[in-house]
């Protein structure tokens, strides 16, 4: 990084001479070193899968969650710093509940995500504040349009709508794998299997720390956590498929 | 010159509910063998005018709680909004815990009592039911639980019938029949009642289910309705 450390990276209120805001880029770095997350919009819903890296063998399974519900029709996954992500989750819940109280209908996904991205963006505008070291993928159902959507909100405050997206350590490889999928042909179950497989594929079990998968989906108009049994099955199936593919590759090499 | 001493504090319009405006009448509830049933008609009156004939006054709160309300309908709507918001918060935690009927009953007691203590009550008498729970909270925060409960006119007209006919071993069909009988008497004698009703049940297996509204048969040929009273002219009506 050419101009790194030359005084332009001390505050998000300062641009570098070549027009960059280093504090925001550093925040994205915090996300990039986190476990891989994948979001897929499929035929009949949206699937979120994230890899939670376990920092200790003594952690209780299922603790410090990365996938959270925001409202009946929306949920999100967190990549990056869990505690920063929880800030986004809390804000998302607040916005969703305010929207229902005010307008009597569930918040349209675009509105919810715009408000969340404004919130994230605000933290890139002040010298006294620090951008969030977390990216949120929001899966939501639009009760008016009867349509599902997937948005990703980044530390910079950028928020785009995606068919498929990835964040964290394995995002580059994951994106390449997602591009190979025919998303509009997949059901939620198939989407879950595909997303789990992509996340597993980005791992090197010999090198990487132990992890736990977490998943949520938005289907039948509602958001929910993927039941533990269903996720475990998908994980087992994904591992088996990957092993088979590996064996086949080895056979070809011989 | 005393009138000059009237200040804003004494002349400003009051900011609290002094009387209800749009009201629902009686709610009935009873335990039977296997669950609890709640019944009410679908009328909301504006004073003595039968204004809204499709007001659903029995709602579900979560999977296994019923809430029936008599009194100010807008206050009931606001209570429902509050409970739904709390339920969503609870669902967001996604930790397997949920609020049961007894907890909802206790919470509503706290809310109703706080509001009456601020001299600004929510003008409702609420019947709360769960698979093995039946309780009442009134507009001043009084609570009780019982095998059968009736609010409003029902406490005069339905309670005597329930005292005579209720048994702990009643089947679902018998319970439904008894509630329909009570609602029929209420329709005959309570001028704020309607023959369009909803009956809801809550059981361990099936959770809380509220029926669609339906009309009950009435028969106005009984002598007390059809013949004149006190030797007066007319058809016996009021």
From TrEMBL, chain A:
It is found in: Cytoplasm; Nucleus. It comes from Triparma columacea. Coiled coil: none annotated. SUPFAM superfamilies: N-terminal nucleophile aminohydrolases (Ntn hydrolases). The 26S proteasome consists of a 20S proteasome core and two 19S regulatory subunits. Its main location: cytoplasm. The keyword Nucleus applies. Keywords: Cytoplasm, Nucleus, Proteasome. The proteasome is a multicatalytic proteinase complex which is characterized by its ability to cleave peptides with Arg, Phe, Tyr, Leu, and Glu adjacent to the leaving group at neutral or slightly basic pH. The proteasome has an ATP-dependent proteolytic activity. Belongs to the peptidase T1A family. InterPro entries: Ntn_hydrolases_N, Proteasome_alpha, Proteasome_alpha-type, Proteasome_asu_N, Proteasome_sua/b. The keyword Nucleus applies. Residues 224-254 are annotated as: Disordered. Pfam families: Proteasome (PF00227), Proteasome_A_N (PF10584). GO terms for cellular component: cytoplasm; nucleus; proteasome core complex, alpha-subunit complex. One of its GO terms (biological process) is ubiquitin-dependent protein catabolic process. Residues 8-30 form the Proteasome alpha-type subunits domain. It comes from the Eukaryota. This is Proteasome subunit alpha type. Residues 241-254 have a biased composition (Acidic residues). Residues 224-240 have a biased composition (Basic and acidic residues).
TrEMBL record, chain B:
Its main location: cytoplasm. Coiled coil: none annotated. It is found in: Cytoplasm; Nucleus. GO terms for cellular component: cytoplasm; nucleus; proteasome core complex, beta-subunit complex. Pfam families: Proteasome. The keyword Nucleus applies. GO terms for biological process: proteolysis involved in protein catabolic process. Keywords: Cytoplasm, Nucleus, Proteasome. Non-catalytic component of the proteasome. PANTHER family: METALLOPROTEASE TLDD, PROTEASOME SUBUNIT BETA. Belongs to the peptidase T1B family. This is Proteasome subunit beta. It comes from Triparma columacea.
């Amino acid at each position: 990084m050419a101009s790194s450390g030359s005084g332009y990276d001390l505050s998000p209120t300062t641009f570098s001479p070549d027009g960059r805001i280093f504090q925001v880029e550093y925040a994205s770095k915090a996300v990039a070193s986190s476990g891989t997350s994948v979001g897929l919009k499929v035929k009949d819903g949206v699937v979120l899968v994230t890899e939670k890296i376990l920092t200790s063998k003594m952690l209780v399974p299922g603790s410090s969650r990365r996938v959270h519900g925001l409202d009946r029709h929306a949920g999100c996954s967190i990549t990056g710093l869990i505690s920063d992500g929880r800030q986004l989750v809390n804000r998302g819940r607040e916005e969703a509940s305010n929207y229902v109280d005010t307008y009597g209908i569930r918040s349209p996904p675009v509105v919810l995500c715009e408000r969340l991205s404004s919130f994230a963006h605000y933290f890139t505008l002040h010298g006294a504040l620090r951008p969030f070291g977390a990216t949120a993928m929001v899966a939501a159902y639009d009760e008016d349009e009867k349509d599902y959507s997937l948005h990703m909100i980044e530390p910079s405050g950028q928020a785009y709508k995606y068919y498929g997206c990835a964040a964290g350590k394995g995002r580059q490889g994951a994106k390449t794998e997602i591009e190979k999928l025919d998303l509009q042909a997949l059901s939620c179950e198939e989407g879950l299997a595909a997303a789990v497989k992509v996340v597993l594929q980005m791992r090197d079990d010999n090198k990487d720390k132990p992890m736990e998968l977490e998943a949520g989906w938005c289907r039948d108009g509602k958001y929910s956590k993927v039941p533990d049994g269903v996720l475990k099955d998908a994980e087992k199936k994904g591992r088996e498929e990957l092993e088979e593919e590996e064996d086949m590759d080895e056979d070809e090499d011989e | 010159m005393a009138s000059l001493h009237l200040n804003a504090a004494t002349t400003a319009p009051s900011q609290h509910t002094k009387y209800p405006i749009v009201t629902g009448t009686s709610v009935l509830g009873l335990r039977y063998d296997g669950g609890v049933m709640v019944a009410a008609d679908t009328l909301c009156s504006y004073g003595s005018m039968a204004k809204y004939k499709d007001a659903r006054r029995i709602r579900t709160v979560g999977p296994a709680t019923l809430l029936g309300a008599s009194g100010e309908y807008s206050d009931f709507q606001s209570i429902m909004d509050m409970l739904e918001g709390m339920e969503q918060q609870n669902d967001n935690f996604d930790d397997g815990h949920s609020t049961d009927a007894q907890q909802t009953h206790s919470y509503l007691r706290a809310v109703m009592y706080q509001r009456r203590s601020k001299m600004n009550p929510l003008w409702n008498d609420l019947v709360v039911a769960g698979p093995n729970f039946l309780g009442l909270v009134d507009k001043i925060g009084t609570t009780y639980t019982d095998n059968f409960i009736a609010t409003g006119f029902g406490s005069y007209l339905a309670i005597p019938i329930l005292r005579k006919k209720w048994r702990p071993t009643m089947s679902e069909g018998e319970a439904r029949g008894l509630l329909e009988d009570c609602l029929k008497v209420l329709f005959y004698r309570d001028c704020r009642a309607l023959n369009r009703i909803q009956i809801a049940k809550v059981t361990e297996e099936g959770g809380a289910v509220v029926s669609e509204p339906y009309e009950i048969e009435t028969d106005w040929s009984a002598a007390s309705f059809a013949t004149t009273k006190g030797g007066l002219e007319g058809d016996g009506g009021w």
